[in-house]
C-alpha cells in the first residue's frame, strides 16, 4: 500500500501548488503607535533605502524606486479614484510598497498603519510627525517644505500633480481637516450595508481626513504618494475596508460594484494632461461597471492582479491581518 500513500502525498503536493498556499500564518500589520523605536527606525530606514535606489522601470520622470511607486498613482489617478476599484487598487499598491521594502531593502517587518482615530483633530501633535522616530513635522510657512525628520533632504521628482519637477516633501497640517479621520466617521462607514455605499463613504471621510489633515503634497489627489505618510494613511484605510469586509466576509470578499470611469475633473485633482490617456474603464471589465476581473496595473512595481485576487487579505495571494492598536 506504500505506493498508494506516496501517490496520495504526490497528488496533495501538486494540488496545493496549483491552488496556491492557503494563508495559514498571516503577516501582522501593526499600528505605528504601537511599534518600538527600533521597529520604527527599521521601517524609516527601509523607506530611505527605496529613496536611494535608482529607478529601473523607465516610468516618466521617476528617478528612484520610491518615485516609481508614486508613479503607479500619478499615471492612473483618474482611473483609480471615484471608481469601484478605488479600495482594491490602493490595497494592491500598499502590498507592492511593502514587498519592495522587504525584497529590495532588507526590511523584515510588514507595512505599518496610522491609526488615525487616535490623532483625529490633533494631527499636529501626532507621534507620526516626530523628527526622530517618525516622518518629520509640518511644512515651513514660507516654503511649505518639511524642516526636520529623516526625509528632510529628499528631492522628490514627481509632482505636484502630473508635473515632473524636483521638489521637497511639503506639508500643511490641518487639525480641523484631520477630524475627518475620527472614529465616528469610521463607524459611519462600517455601518454601511453594501459595497455601493461603503466604498464612497470610505473614499469620502475618512480617506480625505488623512490627506487634507496632512496637507501639501498629501492633499494632491495625483502625486500624494510623494509623502511617505501616504503609505501609513492608505494602509489604515485598507484596514477600514477590511474591517467592513470582515463583518460579512463570505459576501464582501466576493462582490464588487461601482462605475469604472472616473470623472473628468475632481476637486483636489489637477486636470489630466493630454499625455495621460483618458481612462477607458476597459481594464478587464466587459462594460461600464467594475467587475472582479478588473485588472489593477502596478506598472511593473510587482505583478498586476485582478480585483478578485485582492478582495480577501487572507486568500491565495495576500496573506496578512491587522493587529488592533
Ligand atoms: C540633510 O542635509 C544636511 C546638509 O547637508 C545635513 O546636515 C543633514 O544631516 C541632512 N539630514 C538628513 C536627515 O539626512
Ligand atoms: C499590467 O496591466 C497593464 C494594463 O492592463 C498592461 O498594459 C501591462 O502590460 C500589464 N503588465 C504586466 C507586467 O503584465
Ligand atoms: Cu489614491
TrEMBL record:
Pfam families: Tyrosinase (PF00264). Residues 1-20 form the signal peptide. GO terms for molecular function: metal ion binding; oxidoreductase activity. Residues 81-98, 227-238 form the Tyrosinase copper-binding domain. Gene3D superfamilies: Di-copper center containing domain from catechol oxidase. Residues 264-285 are annotated as: Disordered. PROSITE patterns: TYROSINASE_1, TYROSINASE_2. Keywords: Copper, Metal-binding, Signal. The keyword Zinc does not apply. Coiled coil: none annotated. This is Di-copper centre-containing protein. It comes from Canariomyces notabilis.
Amino acid at each position: 500500500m506504500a505506493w498508494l500513500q506516496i501517490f496520495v502525498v504526490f497528488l496533495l503536493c501538486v494540488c496545493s501548488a496549483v491552488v496556491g498556499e492557503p494563508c495559514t500564518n498571516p503577516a501582522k500589520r501593526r499600528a505605528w503607535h504601537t511599534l518600538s523605536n527600533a521597529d520604527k527606525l527599521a521601517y524609516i530606514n527601509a523607506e530611505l533605502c527605496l529613496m536611494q535606489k535608482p529607478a529601473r522601470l523607465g516610468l516618466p520622470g521617476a528617478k528612484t524606486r520610491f518615485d516609481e511607486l508614486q508613479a503607479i498613482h500619478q499615471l492612473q489617478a483618474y482611473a483609480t479614484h471615484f471608481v469601484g476599484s478605488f479600495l482594491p487598487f490602493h490595497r494592491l499598491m500598499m502590498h507592492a510598497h511593502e514587498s519592495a521594502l522587504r525584497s529590495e531593502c532588507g526590511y523584515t517587518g510588514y507595512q505599518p498603519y496610522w491609526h488615525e482615530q487616535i490623532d483625529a483633530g490633533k494631527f499636529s501633535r501626532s507621534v507620526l510627525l516626530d523628527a526622530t522616530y517618525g516622518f518629520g513635522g509640518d511644512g515651513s510657512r514660507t516654503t511649505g517644505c518639511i524642516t526636520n525628520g529623516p526625509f528632510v533632504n529628499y528631492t522628490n521628482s514627481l509632482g505636484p500633480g502630473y508635473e515632473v519637477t524636483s521638489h521637497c516633501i511639503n506639508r500643511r497640517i490641518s487639525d480641523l481637516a484631520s477630524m475627518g479621520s475620527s472614529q465616528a466617521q469610521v463607524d459611519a462607514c462600517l455601518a454601511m450595508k453594501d459595497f455601493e455605499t461603503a466604498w464612497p463613504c470610505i473614499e469620502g471621510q475618512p480617506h480625505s481626513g488623512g490627506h487634507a489633515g496632512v496637507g501639501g503634497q498629501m492633499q494632491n489627489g495625483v502625486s500624494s504618494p510623494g509623502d511617505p505618510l501616504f503609505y501609513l494613511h492608505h494602509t489604515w484605510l485598507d484596514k477600514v475596508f477590511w474591517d467592513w469586509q470582515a463583518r460579512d466576509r463570505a459576501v464582501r470578499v466576493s462582490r464588487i460594484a461601482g462605475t469604472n470611469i472616473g470623472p473628468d475633473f475632481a476637486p483636489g485633482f489637477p486636470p489630466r494632461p493630454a499625455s495621460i490617456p483618458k481612462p477607458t474603464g476597459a481594464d478587464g471589465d466587459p462594460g461600464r461597471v467594475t467587475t472582479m476581473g478588473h485588472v489593477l496595473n502596478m506598472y511593473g512595481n510587482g505583478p498586476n492582479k485582478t480585483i478578485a485576487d485582492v478582495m480577501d487579505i487572507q486568500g491565495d495571494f495576500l496573506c496578512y491581518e491587522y493587529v488592533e492598536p
